[in-house]
Amino acid sequence: MQHRKTRIAFFGTSGWExxxxxxxxxxxxGANIVVFVExxxxxxxxxxxxxxxxxxxxxxxxxxxxxxLCPEEINNTGFQNKLSSYRPDVIVVCGxxxxxxxxxxxxxxxxxxxxxxxxxxRHSGMxxxxxxxxxxxxxxxxxxxxxxxxxxxxxxxxSSKVPVLTxxxxxxxxxxxxxxxxxxxxxxxxxxxxxNLPRTAQDKSKYFYNYDITEKDFELDxxxxxxxxxxxVRMLPGKFYFVLKNEKYFxxxxxxxxxxxxxxxxxxxxxxxxxxxxxxxxxxxxxxxKKIFKDGIDFNPLGLLEILS
Length: 309
Fold this sequence. Notes:
Number of domains: 2
Distance between the termini: 74 Å
Low-confidence stretches: none
Strand order of the largest sheet: 3-2-1-4-5-7-8
CATH topology of the largest domain: Rossmann fold
CATH superfamily of the largest domain: Formyl transferase, N-terminal domain
Number of strands: 15
CATH architecture of the largest domain: 3-Layer(aba) Sandwich
Radius of gyration: 23 Å
Number of helices: 9
Structural class: alpha/beta
């Protein structure tokens, strides 16, 4: 098989599903991995960790009797010379949190290829699955792209698409995205063999970069449509909250209901009793609360009306 001749250096992070799922497929297909590079512990900030019992990168390397490099940082000539000594034709990156300097990007003749869990150029950067649901996107997927000097800006090789479903958690959506990456691994190995990887430049006008998640990102803003707010709550139940009279109320269950009235005589950020639901009005539809907690204790939503009375 031709792809066996392509010498691959594989970069990843133990315990991260973005590493483990593609790596499992590379091994199943007999990829010619000549060296593993494992990210230093504590560098990854992910909303999803691999809860399965897949092997760590170290365990895989030991089982396959392959070398493993674990540099604390990669911007030094010692590591770069060591990586070069394995003569990789291509470097594959699946969940590695460090920026790659020019000296690393140019080690392999075929370049560096990265797996990113969104449809680039949208949601480049950190926590793409979280932000996909947070913004209310209807479709996402996996992008395989070249690594260049930018942050997730390199030419696209392939992508897969999956729908974002009502009630998706980070874990459920991530799982479907990763499953969609399996045929991309197969295509990549086939194209490695031919030495001809397709590439399409990203539309930089649509570049959309996400930063790290902050506490403020979990505050519900009732100027957003109700369906987007419901998606956020269902993504991570109990993490999102609203503030009423300087107190935080964490939403564990909610639903979106259609407009109950022909006219809107409601105030922003004020709870109302609408069709037996305690609800907040948003620009599109109504955000109804089913279960909330305050100070870690179950709180009756009807009590919100008493607070304002």
